[in-house]
Amino acid sequence: MTEQTIAVDGSKKRFQISDILGGFAGSAVVLPQAMGLGVVLFTGMGMDASTGAMAGLLGAAILCIVSGFFGATIGMISAPNGPVTMLLVGVFAGMSSNGSGPAEMMTALSAILILTGIFQVAFGAMGGGQLIKYIPYPVVAGLVTGIGLLMIKSQIILLSKDIDISKLFDLHSAIPVITAILTIFTIATIPKRFPKIPGALAGLIFGIFLFQILVYFTGNMEENWVVGTIPSLASLQLGITPQALKSLPWDIVITSSLALTILATTDCLITSVVADSQTGERHNAKKEMAAQGTGQILVGLLAGLGGGGTKGSTLVTIQSGGGRWSPVFSGLLMILLMLFAGSAGNYLPISVLAGVITFVGIGMIDLNVLSWLKNKENRVDGAIALSVIATIVFLNLVMAVAVGAAIAIIIFIRTQIKAPIIHRRVTAEHHNSLCARTDTEREVLDREGSRIIMAELRGNLFFATADRLLSEIEGDILPGNIIILHFRRVKYIDLTGMILMTQIASRAESKGATLIFCHLREELGFGEKASEAFKQIDKKSDFQAKIFHDTDTAFEYAENMVLEREGCRVTNHDTYKSLEENNFCNGMPKNIIALIEGITSPASFSKGSEVFKIGDFGQSLFLVLKGEIEIRLYTGERNYKRLAKYGPGTYFGEIAFLIPGSRAASAVVIQDAEIMEIDREDIMAMDHDAKADLALYLLYEIGGTLGEELRRSAADIYRLEQW
Fold first, then answer.
1. Do residues 504 and 631 both lie within one domain?
2. Is 426 part of any domain?
3. How buried is 281 (Cβ within 10 angstroms: 0-12 exposed, 13-18 middle, 19+ buried)?
């Protein structure tokens, strides 16, 4: 995105004249849809079309104004939409078949919308807006397509219920069907020839004009062909009263509200993403949910028709220059319409609104579902979408939402089960701790390295994947093996996973293997003492696994275990290693060692002191006779990354010795130490023959060490690439 585009997009947050134009354009598109959906729902509830049109307009006005003031999504028009209306149609069809009357259904509608609004606000406050990422696209495609089919079906039923088969070819009787078909044709074709004219507005105007002409030439107009006078705002009353609460079917109200929350939230957030793609802005999901929920509550209190984001009107609003305040102007325009143009409903044909709703329904059908079925790789996705569509068409939308949510959960669990729990398996043959070892220790570790196995786990360790971990690790639980379970990539562990870990530890102990845990972080449910967390789960369990906070100390502990097992005494910090025993002097003749002794002498360093600091000029090599030194790379006053640890018999500082310059890290004494320093200048001051003899051995030893470090670095880079 260019800087110029960003500047334009940023201006959409401020009031502009174009907000009024955008609001008008959005109203032109959403108005017939809102009225039509209101007619669909309320006539199905046994009420007149004008009341339904009023409820649709009222819902659109309130949702637009409330969401517009919140400004969580720039340019988004909220109003009654297909998903919300079709779910409610299914709910009240069931109530009607059980003998409920219009008054009972009206009360239930208000209660459902109020509860849905409360759920949406709570859902947003808990960060539920991010959950849309976890709804599989085939489920969304199935829901949208099924809702589109329901919308088309509802309008076919609406237009055909009063048709007399004997007068099928009578022009007067066919006026509603002809008007609806030509309205659909107009909406589909006008934007192709005149892109700046909203299709819904063109269809509305042309449909009304055509209807009036046909009525004029064929005779009288049937009373039920038009919406009728839209009630005034003065007739508004609370949609729910304390007395009515007692008789509500709460099981239907609560389940419908939960289903409507999922459906409306999903549809709304998808519309927010569509709006963001046009404006270059980023919506605030939490604020958007609060706005939609608040609007839904107000709509329910005033007996209107609820809804959510509408993609078509949102796109038209933004493309017409609308921004931050367009939804507010759109809502105010609809209120003015209800105040001063209620009689216009006498000239508004229901068939025209049916054409608008049918076109919207056709546009919601996702034909990709059929192509998925043809493709072997996507056949499962196609079957999922079809199952959701079939549930909507043959059962109801509430059940379809439940089926969709269940499928999403099943797909998630299936994906988790199929994915390997062990991301990578590494042995000590290819990975060592940062602790520098003597040559004798290194020989033992090289020989027995396959005994130390680190399994890097990943994903979620819960009831569906726990057994898979046991299956994958079973082959490594052998006598003498040391198994390190690495949890840095693990995102979540449930109770089943924790119990399984105790079982693996017990099994390892019974088979003579050792289990070590590392990176059991606090966010996984472990406090400072992870072992206590395991004991809290099972009071009878005698948990014996060793736990470390980082990988390196876990490896160092495992290496020490192997060394002790093989009879190789581990070099402790208080062990004294003479110059002759140092790795640096390994293989050197006594006369060369004598030369080194002649130019240096031991120096003592106390715990906590620094041999050198990062940035210090260095040209010396350091041989550790006693104690321990860590090489640290500080990232703050107290935060650092440990790069290496050196104990008796090892040496460090070889790079600065070969190429004098600034130290790349700090050397910190962690146990009182005795160190010998070999200064490059002291060597340069020797006579030519002695210097030549010493230089040959120095280069050979340092070159071998650097070669090993280079090999280790290459292995580390390879592991990081896999990470």
1. no
2. yes
3. buried
Write the Ramachandran bin of 615: left for phi over 0, alpha for psi from -120 to 50, otherwise beta. Answer: left
3-state secondary structure of 3: helix
Backbone angles phi, psi at 661, to 5 degrees: 170, -165
CB of 397 within 8 A of CB of 432? no
Are 249 and 99 a contacting pair, CB within 8 Å? Answer: no
Residue closest to 172 by CA, chosen among 206, 222, 210: 222
The tokens for 550 are 């980082």
Kind and range of the H or E run holding 492 = strand 482-493
Neighbours of 140 (CB within 10 A): 19
Please tell me the distance from the alpha carbon of residue 198 to that of residue 312, in angstroms, as a whole number.
10
Query: Domain check: are 59 and 186 in the same one?
Result: yes
Reduce the DSSP state of residue 647 to 3 states and report it: coil
Q: Which two tokens stand for residue 231?
A: 């009630």
Q: Is residue 441 part of a domain?
A: yes
What is the DSSP pairing of strand 661-662 with strand 617-618? antiparallel
Task: Find residue 79's DSSP bridge partners.
Answer: 308
- The Cα–Cα gap between 183 and 197 comes to 15
Residues 529 and 602 in one domain: no
Tell me the backbone φ, ψ of residue 651, rounded to 5 degrees. -145, 165
The Cα-based distances of 557 to 110, 415, 491, 628 in angstroms read 66, 35, 25, 16
Residues 631, 519 share a domain: no
Most confident of the ranges 314-318, 417-421, 560-564:
560-564
Decide if 579 contacts 572 (C-beta within 8 A).
no
Residues whose CB falls within 8 Å of the CB of residue 140, separated by 6 or more in sequence, listed in order: 266, 270, 404
Residue 202 banded pLDDT, cuts 50, 70, 90: confident
Q: What single letter denotes the amino acid at residue 156?
A: I
Whole-structure pTM over 0.85, yes or no?
no
Tens digit of pLDDT for each residue in 581-622? 888 888 888 888 888 888 888 899 999 999 999 999 999 999
Give the separation between CA 470 and CA 472, rounded to whole angstroms.
6
